[in-house]
Amino acid sequence: MSPNKTLSPEELEFSIKTEQLGKLENLLLQLELEFNSLQMEISTFQRRYVEFIVKRMYELDGVEVEIAQYLISTDPNNPEYRQKLNKFREQVDEAEKAFAREKKALSKSDFKPSDSLKNLYRDIARKIHPDLSVDDEEREKRTVIMAEVNEAYQNGDEKRLEQILNEWQYSPENVSGEDVGSQLIKAIRKIAQARKRIIIIENEIKILKGTEIYELQEKSKESTKDGIDLLIQMSGYLDVQIHERKQYLEFLQSGGK
Fold first, then answer.
1. CA distances (Å), 213 to each of 9, 39, 44, 50, in order?
2. What are residue 129's phi and psi, to 5 degrees?
3. Predicted TM-score (pTM) above 0.90
4. Is the pLDDT reported for residue 242 higher than 70?
5. Does residue 247 register a pLDDT over 60?
6. Are the beta carbons of 160 and 152 closer than 8 angstroms?
7. What pLDDT band is residue 246 in, cutting at 50, 70 and 90?
8. In the prediction, which pLDDT does 118 show?
9. CB contact at 8 A, 64 and 83
10. What is the 3 state secondary structure string of the chain?
11. What is d(CA 31, CA 222) in angstroms, rounded to the nearest whole number?
12. How many percent of the chain have pLDDT more than 90?
């Protein structure tokens, strides 16, 4: 384009939108990187937390249940003993449920899709399947989307399938034409998509940073600066408690000798 050429209103607006889109895409890239890194860090820390802390707390609560049961056997009408037993039983039950959910997440349950789910999947596949693409770049994009479609279908998530279909139908890539007007519409849609995704990621980051496990992870990072592994330190305290409570249980069972 000649530098002396006067831009049409559409061309001028397209230039403005292109610059705006570039800034939004850079911000989106930074947020995506921050969110993905944060997820990985928390996931890694949480696995260590379960291994070092949760399992020991579960074991300690189990010992406390045994102690409370023994004390109740010696004084059935004591409300304090009964209260403690109920408390520790609840904690053990919650831990068992958590372990069960964790185990279930590792295995797939029987898949029995409804007719509406099947029909929705077929409709999406007809519109989005990678085999419908006209070039390698489009095929790669469709492959990524179809992976999400397959995951939602396997999970029986009909709402997610409908969301994917709506996003596809209103995607900038589905606007035909290479003229300035068409390109401007694409840019406007891309800007809307970027803004929507930025809001979603910022909210997801905020939620992650508001969790207890994140706060504990940050404390752990601070303790590392002083050469202390916070989880190992906490697990050591729990080991001492478990040992002491087991000794107390043995003391009770031996008649206080």
1. 52, 11, 11, 11
2. -50, 135
3. no
4. yes
5. yes
6. yes
7. very high
8. 83
9. no
10. CCCCCCCCHHHHHHHHHHHHHHHHHHHHHHHHHHHHHHHHHHHHHHHHHHHHHHHHHHHHHHHHHHHHHHHHHHCCCCHHHHHHHHHHHHHHHHHHHHHHHHHHHCCCCCCCCCHHHHHHHHHHHHHHCHHHCCCHHHHHHHHHHHHHHHHHHHCCCHHHHHHHHHHHHCCHHHCCCCCHHHHHHHHHHHHHHHHHHHHHHHHHHHHHHCCHHHHHHHHHHHHHHCCCCHHHHHHHHHHHHHHHHHHHHHHHHCCCC
11. 24
12. 31
74, two tokens: 């010696």
CB distance 186 to 13 below 8 Å: no
Task: Write out the two tokens for 71.
Answer: 């004390």
* Banded pLDDT at 135 (limits 50, 70, 90): low
Chain position carrying tokens 């820390």: 45
| Two tokens, residue 47 | 């696995």
Distant-in-sequence, close-in-space partners of 212: CB < 8 Å, separation ≥ 6? none
Nearest CA-CA partner of 190 in 56, 8, 6, 14: 14
The answer to whether residue 88 scores a pLDDT higher than 80 is: yes
How far apart CA 75 and CA 252 sit, in angstroms, is 13
The answer for residues whose C-beta is within 8 angstroms of residue 146's C-beta and 6 or more apart is 125, 128, 129, 130
Q: pLDDT of 35-54, one tens digit each?
A: 888 888 888 888 888 889 98
